[in-house]
Structures are given as structure tokens and as C-alpha cells.
Amino acid sequence: MDTQQLYVTYKPLLFSIAYRMLGTVADAEDIVQDTFLSLERFQKKNVENIKAWLCKTLTNRCIDFLRSARKKREVYVGPWLPEPVVFRDEQLGPMEQVIRQDQLSIAMLALMESLSPVERAIFILREVLDFEYDEIAEITGKETVNCRKIFSRVKQKLSKELPDKRIDYEQQRMLLESFLQAIHTEDSATLLELLSPDVVLYSDGGGKVKAALRPILSSERVVAFLLGVTRKQSTDYRVEIANVNGEAGIIAYEGNEVYGINTIKLVDGKIAAVYIIRNPDKLKNV
Fold first, then answer.
1. How far apart, in Å, are the Cα atoms of 22 and each of 58, 102, 142, 160, 258?
2. Cα–Cα distances in Å, from 44 out to 6, 29, 47, 54?
3. Separation between Cα atoms, residue 165 and residue 237, nearest integer Å
4. Which long-range contacts (CB under 8 A, 24 or more apart) does 73-80 make?
5. What are the residues whose beta carbons fall under 8 Å from the beta carbon of 3, sequence distance 6 or more?
6. Fewer beta carbons within 10 Å, N or C terminal of the chain?
7. pLDDT tens profile 168-224
């Protein structure tokens, strides 16, 4: 199989790993590209298992990237949220198909931020991509027994934070319509009914636009924040529901410019988290 065929065959898998680990589309695509360039330099004829070699090389590059990026994210202004991908039509390329089909929601990507680079790699390879522990050990350079222990620890750590299994897109859309209507009419009672009592709102402005600098905790405070922000919006502010990372999300506009993207996490049918992405660097491709 020549390099172009390998690229077509394995790029979706590699992008799926990289985007989950990094949370940014451009960085994920760059690392996928670098991985294939490395294969060319290494001479693929010397590689017995191409898939394993590609996964190992890419995962190690992601781990190195995250270790470097963590220092930057430690001084990031406010909460750091992943870069969203918006689907505007059914003509999807390979990468868009991966994101739509593989449960790459903003909620799941945001959860990865609580894990170390190695924990993130082991969790993704096992939980999401169903790799065997021996394969994961080979990719990460850890002992098989250590991979089992790390995965078990991560699974327990995230157990209460995982969103509901994917629900029907139309159900999500209808819930968001009720959410938006309640905000528009300042219906606090309905908002409190839709939100989990311990809901958390994260707002990512990256220090470049106005956003909450710390997560907002509890349904009462989140409602107050949402209504307060809405009252201050200009007359040309509008919203629409769109497919964001394979789930129903909200695109907000001010005039013809994208103002922000909002998504939610559902736990037991209630909104357990609200993610507001306003950093303009993360909205360039919307």
C-alpha cells in the first residue's frame, strides 16, 4: 500500500485520536500530517505493523504537544474550552464524518482537560477506540498492568462527569429551543427546571473578548448570568441552532459576525454543564 493509500485509510483514525487529545482541529491536523511525513522518512518498508506504528508515533507527538501546551494553558485567561466544529450541510469530508459519528462532543473533549497527557491517551485508546491493553502498552510505552490501573483510575474519576449516551439530535434541538425560549422570555422557573441544581457554566474568551473568568456554579447563578448577559445584547444579536461536533448546539451572531458558540452537557436528562466559546481564534472556521 503506497503512502497516499495509507493516508486515506488511517487519517480518520489518527485524526480521531489527535483531536480528542488536543481539542483543537488545526493542531490535530498538523500532527496527523507530521506523522505521515515521519513514516516517509522512516521508510515504511521497515515497519511491520503500519497501524500500530502510526498510532504510537501520533500519540507520542500528542503527549509531547500537551506537555508543552499545559504551561500555556496554565496562564490562559479564564477557562480553556476545545475548538468547535460546525456542520452546515450534509456534504461532509472524512474529518467531519469522524467528528459527527465518533461522539466528539465539546463536553467529552472538555473532560479530557482534567487528565494528564498519558491518562488521556490510555482512556481514549481503550474507552473510545477499544484497543487491547497490550496494544495500548506498546503505543504508550507503559507496562500492560500499569495501563489497566491507569484506565481504571481514570474511569472512576470521570464516572460522575460523563454525559448521557448520545440522544437523538431532534430531542436535543427541542430541548435547546425550550432553553432559548426561556432565556428570551426571562422565564427563570423553566430554566431552573431544565438545569441540574449543580450545573456549571464555562465561558472561554481567551482574554480577547468579555467572558466569565471563572466557572459559574449552581443553577441559580447560571440563570442569573444568562439573563444578565441577554439583557445587555445589542438589537442585532440573534441565535440559531446548528450541528456542533455532532450534537445540537447554538451559534450566536452579532450582525453578520459569529459572536460565540454554546453547547451543553446532559446528565440524567438535565443540563449539567453549559459551554460558551467566545475566543475569536476558536471561531475562525465557523
1. 12, 16, 21, 22, 23
2. 10, 21, 5, 10
3. 32
4. 73/113, 76/206, 76/207, 77/205, 77/206, 77/207, 77/213, 78/203, 78/204, 78/205, 78/206, 78/207, 78/211, 78/212, 78/213, 78/214, 79/202, 79/203, 79/204, 79/212, 79/214, 79/215, 80/113, 80/204
5. 36, 39, 40, 44
6. N
7. 888 899 999 999 999 999 999 999 999 999 999 999 999 999 999 999 999 999 999
* C-alpha cell read off for 228: 444578565
Is 160's pLDDT higher than 90? Answer: no
- 218: amino acid identity, one letter: S
Amino acid at 185: T
State pLDDT tens for residues 90-129: 655 666 666 655 667 899 899 998 899 999 999 999 988 8
Spatial distance between the Cα atoms of 96 and 106, rounded to a whole number of angstroms: 14
8 Å CB contact between 165 and 247? no
Contact 268, 160 (CB under 8 A): no
Alpha carbons 16 and 34: distance in angstroms, whole number:
15
Q: What is the average pLDDT value for the chain, to the nearest integer? A: 89
Q: Is the pLDDT of residue 73 over 80?
A: no
Per DSSP, 280 falls in state G
| More confident site: 167 or 240 | 240
Helix (H, G, I), strand (E, B) or coil at 156: helix
Average pLDDT of the segment spanning 134-138: 93
User: What domains does the chain contain, in order, with CATH numbers?
Assistant: 3-158 (1.20.140.160), 169-282 (3.10.450.50)
Residue type present at position 27 = D
Residue 29: which residues within 8 A CB-CB, separation 6 or more?
15, 18, 95
